[in-house]
Design a protein that fits this description.
The protein has five helices and two strands, in the order αααβααβ. With about 180 residues, it is mainly alpha-helical.
Length: about 180
């Protein structure tokens, strides 16, 4: 179906295995991309249906949904070679850092809507929607992810676990049908 995936897979796997910090960053970015997709889908769905007049609330709900998705993937994949804290402390710190990052994620949307007044009737509906997307999904997400990576490495998953293997197990290539 997508032949470029088959050819890119070995190169991506080699890059992830090359250097510990870089591999964490790459895996974190992959998890971030999937969380971004979850966040975007939830945000746009809520904003165009039940929370149409409440874009900031829609964004907060979307970010909370993406945080849960992100925790599961980051714990099991991105930072699985790190340890140093009991599981419940790690989870609590992950959610605390992520909840603090909600302010970072939503700040550009708040500025766009309420400080710059990029909302109907001051601007057209198309301009409002574009401004909401850029502020919430692009600027907010980049700022929030930068903060999260820094905090996850420094606070949530602070120490490499000594008893874990250096290499990740082989992952099979996707089969094309």
């Amino acid at each position: 179906m997508f032949p470029w995936i088959r050819s890119a897979w070995p190169r991506a796997r080699a890059a992830v295995r090359s250097e510990p910090r870089r591999s964490e960053l790459i895996r974190f970015a992959v998890v971030g991309a999937t969380a971004f997709a979850v966040d975007t889908a939830v945000f746009l769905t809520l904003k165009s249906t039940v929370l149409e007049s409440r874009p900031v609330t829609a964004k907060v709900v979307a970010v909370l949904t993406a945080i849960t998705w992100s925790y599961l993937l980051n714990k099991q994949w991105s930072f699985r070679q790190r340890g140093g804290r009991p599981g419940h402390h790690e989870a609590a710190l992950f959610y605390l850092v992520s909840l603090l990052a909600i302010a970072i994620n939503t700040a550009p949307l708040v500025v766009s809507r309420y400080a710059l007044h990029l909302e109907v009737p001051e601007v057209s509906r198309t301009t409002q929607e574009a401004a909401d997307f850029v502020a919430a999904q692009l600027v907010g997400t980049v700022l929030g992810m930068g903060f999260r990576f820094w905090a996850f490495v420094r606070v949530v998953f602070p120490e490499p676990a000594d008893d874990l293997p250096d290499e990740l197990p082989e992952m099979p290539l996707p089969v094309e049908e």
